[in-house]
Design a protein that fits this description.
- This protein is an alpha/beta fold.
- Helices cover about 35% and strands about 15% of the residues.
- It is built from 12 helices and 11 strands.
- It has an 11-stranded mixed beta sheet with strand order 2-1-11-10-9-3-8-7-4-6-5.
- The longest helix has 16 residues.
- It is globular.
């Protein structure tokens, strides 16, 4: 396959526009305000990447925008459609079939992540944290089934308190937990061509964040395997805020910033997509060597991008407020030259669509 991924045409012409597949081994920042066509355009890039490379793609999808990635449009060219049907695409959802159900093993998370979920601080709650620490020796040995039941069966008052905390906070009843069963880590480790992790549909904000944290921690802790992956984080401001509120938020932001700073050499490459660059932690944004910028009316956001990403030409950045839907500035390593592109057509269906206004 060609190293050039066709994503549309150069603005004002019929000349094909490309990005360089080999340069997606750098972090990418993808942004555009609501209505700019950001999600649609991102789908175009991901389709070409899945078709023409062997790079596994993992999408953290908070708005269910990519859950129909397996479904071809009627307008898809026959040759591309035939190739697409050969690709292994997994979609994990809260209410999916058993083999594709989005679940996380609570005991598979790091000690630090579990403590954050349970709101246990090692200094403020030393006894409870120590109980969790002692539990570590059982996590991968004789501990089976639902954690609350197991804790209550043990002759240890500290573990009984952990069981009570799990119940009192409602943590034990969350839908996201696999407890002893198959979870999203098992699926991601199978290295499908694309794995969409649908983070929408949960009843609490903690559940999608716990799933994302479990995945990112797992990939980082196994980074020495050096398995190339593109991790797409849509609406990245939700997981990588400059002002995290909870301890889970803080751990997520720290992990994403760490991957942005050090992940490239291990083959963990980020694509951060958002409507507002200022809402993404600057230490993650500044590590991005590729930029796709769609319509952005906020002049302050455009100016911030120019300061953070010096490779984007000012004369093109300043045109962002006037971009029409589907137009984007591509700059950085994955563009042979900075250029404005009219993004081409999707092969697959979009998961999330605007709500239409009915006409009388």
């Amino acid at each position: 396959m060609s190293n050039d991924l066709t994503i549309g045409t150069r603005f004002g012409s019929s000349v094909p526009a490309h990005v360089l597949a080999k340069k997606l081994n750098r972090h990418t920042f993808w942004c555009g305000q609501s209505g700019s066509g950001k999600t649609y355009a991102l789908g175009v890039l991901l389709e070409q990447l899945i078709l023409d490379t062997r790079l596994p793609v993992v999408v953290l999808d908070p708005n269910s925008d990519f859950v129909r990635l397996r479904e071809l449009r009627d307008t898809a060219p026959p040759e591309s459609a035939a190739l697409w049907r050969e690709r292994d695409i997994r979609v994990l959802r809260l209410d999916g079939p058993e083999e594709d159900r989005l679940r996380v093993r609570f005991l598979g998370m790091t000690l630090q992540a579990r403590a954050a979920v349970l709101k246990i601080d090692p200094i403020i709650d030393p006894e409870d944290y120590n109980a969790m620490l002692r539990l570590e020796s059982f996590v991968h040995t004789d501990l089976r089934g639902h954690l609350v039941q197991w804790l209550r069966e043990q002759n240890d008052p500290a573990w009984h308190r952990l069981a009570m905390r799990l119940e009192n906070l409602g943590i034990a009843d969350l839908d996201v937990w696999a407890w002893g069963g198959r979870d999203l880590i098992d699926v991601v480790d199978e290295r499908a061509d694309a794995t969409v992790i649908d983070l929408g549909g949960f009843s609490t904000p903690l559940e999608p964040k716990a799933a994302a944290l479990a995945l990112l921690d797992h990939l980082w802790n196994n980074r020495n395997e050096r398995v190339g992956r593109l991790i797409v984080i849509d609406e990245a401001h939700n997981l990588c805020s400059p002002d995290p509120v909870t301890e889970v938020d803080r751990l997520l932001t720290e992990r994403i910033v760490q991957i942005a700073a050090e992940g490239r050499k291990y083959g963990i490459w980020l694509l951060l997509s958002t409507q507002r660059p200022s809402k993404v932690h600057p230490n993650a944004l500044s590590q991005c060597d590729n930029l796709a910028l769609m319509k952005m009316s906020s002049l302050s956001d455009v100016a911030d991008l120019g300061r953070q990403l010096g490779y984007a030409p000012d004369e093109l950045l300043t045109q962002a407020p006037s971009f029409r839907q589907g137009q984007a500035l591509f700059a950085g390593g994955f563009a042979e030259q900075a250029q404005i592109v009219q993004v081409g057509a999707r092969l697959t269906q979009e998961g999330g669509n605007d709500v239409a206004i009915e006409v009388r």
